[in-house]
Amino acid sequence: MGMSSKLTFAVSSIVAVLLVSGVISIFEFRRMSHYVSDQISENIACVNMSTELGVISDEYNVSILSIVGNADSIVVSGLNPRPYLTLADSLISELSAFRVDHADSLRAAFTRYTDTSLQLDSIIVSDFVDSRDWYFTVLQPQYNEFRMWQDNVNKGIYDDLQANSGSFDESFYRSVMPTVVSVTVAIILSLLLLFFILEFYVRPLKRMLQGVDSYKRYSQPYNVGFEGDDQLQELNSDLKEITQENASLKRRLRERER
After folding, report:
1. pLDDT at 143
2. Which long-range contacts does 91-96 make (Cβ < 8 Å, 24+ apart)?
């Protein structure tokens, strides 16, 4: 291989390492970024649904408490639970579809609470059951149990969100590792290339220049030698041949002058 081929091969190797590692880093980061982003988006959606479920259940429970507080002056509650329960059930179903921890327990607690709450009208008209006592001893404990499971669901969502955030950080560092490795390898290859150029090209050129200078100044024979089989070795051989021919010519001229 000639000088240009060797240098081209060395530089091309460095470029190839950087290019391949860069492409791997891009694809790895995009893949992990999309995956973790989808997971985090799902967690945020679950947080929003759980928050909305809490607001709806609070409104429904407060409405029942307000009716119970005025039970002495009314015969029928007038409460339409269908909008509350339908929306709440839909939100719980979506949480179950996302496989949120404790979603099944939340649904069971919600079902017990709603089934009991639907007894409101019969409790109001009953002469044997005190509506306030029914609310605080029967319904409210079931509501508290429902909210306890909702808190567990929220904790599970936030734990999952935190884990996904950690996975995002981990995926980021993992995706940049090929770049770090490639840069390290490129630095090592660059240092090796620099050593190669200094050792096999710059140093021989300096020796050749010193040999030529010694020949010009002090008429010392040009006897520079080094290992190699490229154009630099050919140039050194040509210089040696030229200086030898020049020295022979000078000797013949001096002999004629005598």
Report:
1. 92
2. 91/49, 91/50, 91/52, 91/53, 91/56, 92/53, 94/49, 95/46, 95/49, 95/50, 95/53, 95/153
pLDDT tops 60 at residue 241 = yes
CA distance linking residue 179 with residue 190, whole number of Å: 16
Tokens of 87: 């929306």
Q: How far apart are CA 151 and CA 106, in angstroms?
A: 9
The DSSP letter of residue 101 is: T
Average pLDDT over residues 95-110: 80
- What is each CA distance from 190 to 11, 15, 240, in whole angstroms? 8, 10, 33
Asked whether 43 and 164 are in contact (CB, 8 A), the reply is yes
Residue 27 has which token pair?
A: 């694809």
Rounded alpha-carbon distances, angstroms, from residue 234 to 183, 223, 239, 240: 36, 14, 9, 10
What tokens does 248 get?
């022979």
Segment 159-191, tens digit of pLDDT: 877 776 666 666 666 666 777 777 777 778 777
